[in-house]
Amino acid sequence: MPPHATGHRPIFAPLPKYLNGFQVTIKKVWLIGAGGMAIDYAKVLTALQVPFLVIGRGPSSAQGFTEKTGLPAIQGGLDAFLQTAPEIPSAAIVAIGVESLVKEVRGLLANNVQRILVEKPGALMRSQITDLLALADSKNAQVRIAYNRRFYSSTLRALELIAEDGGVQSMNFEFTEWDHAVRGVQTAPGVKEAWFIANSTHVVDLAFFLGGVPTEIQTFTSGGLDWHPNASVFAGAGRTDRGALFSYQANWGAPGRWGVEVITSNYRLIFRPMETLQIMRKASVKIEPVEIDDCLDKTFKPGLYVQVQRFLNDQLSDFCTLEDQIAHWDVYSSMAGYPLAPRQTAGTLGK
Question: Domain spanning 150-293: which CATH class is it, in words?
Fold first, then answer.
């Protein structure tokens, strides 16, 4: 348990035996946020035996965090906390609402935090990501975007199968969002209008992580919803930098679900639901489950333990960088039916 824990009794279960030997060595982490996602990160940091400090904003979220974890949360937000001239941590994790991610990352960078993991998608505008990159470069800091599906047990096993079978030849994916569910979600202004960036990129990022990023793409959209007027039906196809052909579709006003199918010479690998992996082998139509070691994904939020462990151990090769997100932005915008923003140089955020 972190040294700042109070007398509240944590609800976390005892650390399973299979986690022995997975600890990391790091001085201290700041966890920015006290909501549901922060609780998931706190569970992982506790299991990793990493000292961490939770910095929340309002009393309600801080109280809820403490009630659910047995750990204290500082109230008042990051800006107020920084005014106390605290000792700068080895790393920080930003797990708050998407509309506030940029502000908190900027505050951390301005105070010389050198390693930052920020929840997906990092920002809602390309210009914001561009300026964060410029600031991070000026501070010689590393910022990574937390697409945790890259670290699912199903993903890690699929990567092994893809490598042994010579790589991805083609793939298809679906990122349908449920209109009836999303319209009832409370968000900050502008978040739902950018829901493809804020939420659907969970799926799209995984597909492109597995099969490569587009070098050619044709996109089509139609329809629209009151909370997402740009489009509600999406389809397209293209080619990736690894030579794989791909197609996708989604209809946010009709039945559907997230899913990715990746095809190699001998395997069709199916993520549906995405926490699981199924396989169809050449010369057969039988779909079988692939055995995966998903103990971590059942104990913690799927993908989170491996993601945090690698981040804190400076094993960053499989993470989404700010440069990656900037490079993907026009593709995402075209897929979503958003206007393509003019490219701009860094240094304009907040001006």
Answer: alpha beta
